[in-house]
Amino acid sequence: MSQQQTLLDKLWAAHEILRREDGVSLLWVDRHLVHEGSHHAFAKIAARGLPIAAPDNTVAVVDHYAPTRGRSKIVDPQIARMIDTLRQNAEKHGLRIFDLDDPTQGIVHVVGPEQGITLPGLLINCGDSHTSTHGAFGTLAFGIGATEVAHVLATQTIWQKKPKAMRITIDGELQAGVTAKDIALHWIARLGTGGAQGHAIEYAGSTVRALSMEGRMTLCNLSIEGGARFGMVAPDETTKAYVKGRPYAPADDAWDAAVIAWDTLVSDADAAFDIDINIDAADIAPTVTWGTSPEQALPIDVPLPDPATLSPQKSELASEALDYMGLTKGQSLVGTAVDLVFIGSCTNGRIEDLRAAAAVLAGRRAKVPGLVSPGSQLIKAQAEQEGLDKVFTDAGLEWADSGCSMCVGMNGDLVGNAKRCASSTNRNFKGRQGRGARTHLMSPAMVAAAAVTGEITDVRVLFRDRSS
Amino acid sequence: MAGWQTHFGIATALPLANVDTDQLIPARFMSVPRSEGYGDYLLHDVRRDASGALRPEFPLNQAPQASVLVAGASFGSGSSREAAVYALVDAGYRAVFAPSFGDIFASNSVNNGLLPARIAPEIYDELVSLIGSSSSETPCEVRIDLQNGQASFNGKQLAFALDDTWRMKLMNGWDDIDLTQQHSAQIAAFKSKYAQTEPWAMPASSV
Asked: Fewest C-beta atoms under 10 Å: which of A11, A125, A157, B134?
């Protein structure tokens, strides 16, 4: 009998061109996604006079600097220059570009799956740490730096040492109001930001199987916040149903061949993992970050920690985080007033996220201002067809175009200094959403609940109010 | 990129865990061409007050000549932005000693000649207090021996961990594109076989 293999083993073997004596592999890259931030890498290959090795495997997306309002005329010259540089590079190298005026433009990690550019069994690179999102399809997907982006552009390959294998198994049914975002924040709070460092995570278990592709993408997206460069879910019927018929997905004979290949992409029953973690879905509550690192997260109904009761390392970080966040030890998260809300990003800007937020906001008014930026222009159009835009605007929130927007603030969508934002995004780092901004990460439904009450709120209570 | 074997310099400490890439370089500076230099943006929002003036009490500002940084666990966690490394390198840093690093940050470092040296948490604590007792008149002097994975901080000898592949890359200043081009025949062979066995994985023609 052959050795039992993990999903990681199988995907790695399928892309390995060679392995050096030092154990580092040269891997074939099936799809390479570039964005405005890839300018350093384009400059590097231009400096060496190198062409792009495989332009057909390379796709450009305008997202990090994409204006979400008034995009037909960009006012900020720096933003205009960033987008123009990507256009020029796409033109020069003959790349398909999802530009601002394209009805299918959006965030790179939303557009890839939506267009069928992302498929099970592929290896995908992008100069963005949330590339692990694509792992939701049973794809070897990982973020890389600019030097590596230049290398992929020049060779369509990447040098990489195989990570260790880690499995996070979540079983059971999630409580109402608990989502993939809460699963992610739950395990990151438990294991810490370095908990999965050096590992590729495979998410398994009945809870994961029951998640939609949108939910799986949210879960895989946040892998990096727990230190893992890779996060993945073995493909199944849910995956195939999502992929089938997408514009760039294989069709006809190619589809049949693909399905045969994809059906083998599962960890063998007795495959060994270096770390195995089990989580009971029933233990997961709506989870919110209170500090400046994604591991500083708590179930909504648990009071903030007293740094004096934490380990020496965590204690100092907690004191500093409470100070930055303008919070007090022992206080309840529930009832903490917010200044604004943001719904969007590659973590939680998909149609299911917008529906979940709209379900809470329907027939209600937001007490604070907020911005809703769909993950792609297609999602925006779909949401408008479903009338979700009306729910958001009737509630008093702003309905905008698609891009990375307020998650990273490169396009000018910023949270003000010392302002508190309930955000469906991925990082609560100091200054992430703008200098001095105070970010609380949570699910889109929880963000909507915060909008309705003007304070951090347990969305389950609003659901109860509605049903009574 | 030039390789290096030994380095002699001054150390400073940033005794905090989780110094993420958003702190190392705030996103708003990342549209600047590299040729303009990134050193001024290093830790911009913690190093400087709202007016942009340097905060004299911030450790890095007290040791402007430092080239070795000692920092807490999960240094460089977060985004893949290589600009975080550019900011360190352009500010004159050659090595960071920390108990652990963000994975992408560490590989970006090696690609830019910056040593991500892993040290045990106890050694980290010792170095922080050692540097804490130094001053601008009597700075903490560091000697790094890359080949042997050894460093000395004011005479305190210690071993650091570094992946062998990364050690070779740093020492030789290897460029991956040059290395890979030596394997072009193997890549071409893989590609043509792969196109036959996995036709579905080929990019669809534009739609």
From this structure: B134
